[in-house]
Amino acid sequence: MDLEILGRALSTLPADDDHPYRTGPWRPQTTEHRADDLEIIGDLPTDLDGVYIRNTENPVHPAQQGRYHPFDGDGMVHVVGFRDGKAFYRNRFVRTDGFVAEQEAGRALWAGIAENPVKSERTDGWGARGRMKDGSSTDVTVHNGVALTSFWQCGDLYRVDPMSLETLGKAEWGGDFPSNLGVSAHPKVDHRTGEMLFFNYGTDAPYMHYGVVDSSDKLVHYTDIELPGPRLPHDMAFTENYSILNDCPLFWLPEALAAGKYVSRFHPDLPMRLGVLPRRGGGNEIMWFDAAPTYVLHWTNAYEDGEEIVLEGFHQETPEPEDTGDGSLYQRMFRFLALDRMGTHLHRWRLNLRTGGVTEERLSERITEFGMISPAHTGVPHRYTYAATGLPGWFLFDGLVKHDSLTGVEERYPLGEGVFGSETVMAPRIGSAGEDDGYLVTMTVDMNRDLSECLVFDAQRLADGPVTRIRLPERVSSGTHSTWASGAEIPGWRTADRPEDAVGL
Ligand SMILES: [Fe+2]
């Protein structure tokens, strides 16, 4: 392995830290690495060609008021690239305005999500709540050959080189980026059209907007979506002709909000409203459907089936888990992050465009979340979903599941005690001839051996275990979302000697 240290960030975290989301599998990193020619155990398929990029929440300072929540962490992105039968790795902080300001100050300047915004040292900020730092640590997607990192509420999109991970600045969309509200965590790329679809939300009417960015990075559509009040949507879906937005009955209590307090509550007496509008339609064209009350953090896909829109995602049995008094203080405080406490199940909604009716069905009795499908099937029918199982009580993934929606059969790969994975992507192999003709790629945190690996599975034989293990230079932190981009999507991919030499960005 050819290893170089690219940089080190200042960390003021205490040596005796006991916060479970800043220690153990969530131990943040401060060092940035360049590693080429990584050691490969097993056979690295030569038809695996592209990059696996993963975002992590990587704090470097104690929380301003002592109540750190993992969503407050600074974004650190990791990339494992596969090219010509070799693998490379980079990890870099996203140089957000907030990260740079706090590096200069040597301390946290903004209140975290579990802290009092009135006491925030900096009174500016990002997010629908405001007075928060945009850590850009939630999702990462690739659009027009550039990786974009995002914030879990609404914030800027940071442009990151998908090979070197250097921060290139913020998305501007020719000056039309909606900087007053930002963009929500999960903008969606349609690989067929090259478009990116997104929404944002805030505390002022109309409370939501929806937009489309085209394949030349221009904002070509932006419309008001009127909601009954401030909401906290996280994700959206799309089909060939429609976008699907949501108004889930989990939102800030209006009376508390009027007093400047942000208290989110589930309202089991209200339906989950699903809004379907033409991809370039105005907000007045949206058609709302009422489904049974729940909160959906992540959708896996949507597609059209005759007069119906089929929507799949993770239904929560208990969007607001009770504090039963069991477990440690931290386990009780972060019960909202544990898949078993929320009871997340793969679920299907059918929205009938003619009758306005909704039918629902649970697709799996297993508790999973963070599901991915083949990128070739977004917006059109799919058969396979690849999702994570969770360690009970914690925000940690202890295994992978491949769900076959045609047969209902599930194939599982447990990572083993003390080993945790990340959101797992499906990477079609070059010349892929079927939906699962490719590889599953994930990144582990192995607490037994104090290291991290990138694992590659044959997507048709998940239960057989990884075909390739690639050791990373340092144990990474557990984290959030990831993405796959094929080499064909990345400028300079074929011609650059090293990722830093890529041209075109
Ligand atoms: Fe998310």
From TrEMBL:
Enzyme Commission code(s) on record: 1.13.11.-
Cofactor stoichiometry and binding remark: Binds 1 Fe(2+) ion per subunit.
Molecular function GO terms recorded: carotenoid dioxygenase activity; metal ion binding
Cofactors demanded by this protein: Fe(2+)
Keyword terms, alphabetized: Dioxygenase, Iron, Metal-binding, Oxidoreductase
Coiled coil: none
Pfam family name, one: RPE65
Spans annotated as Disordered: 14-34
Gene Ontology BP annotations: carotene catabolic process
Domain of life: Bacteria
Residues involved in Fe cation binding: H186, H234, H298, H481
Family label: Belongs to the carotenoid oxygenase family.
The protein's name: Dioxygenase
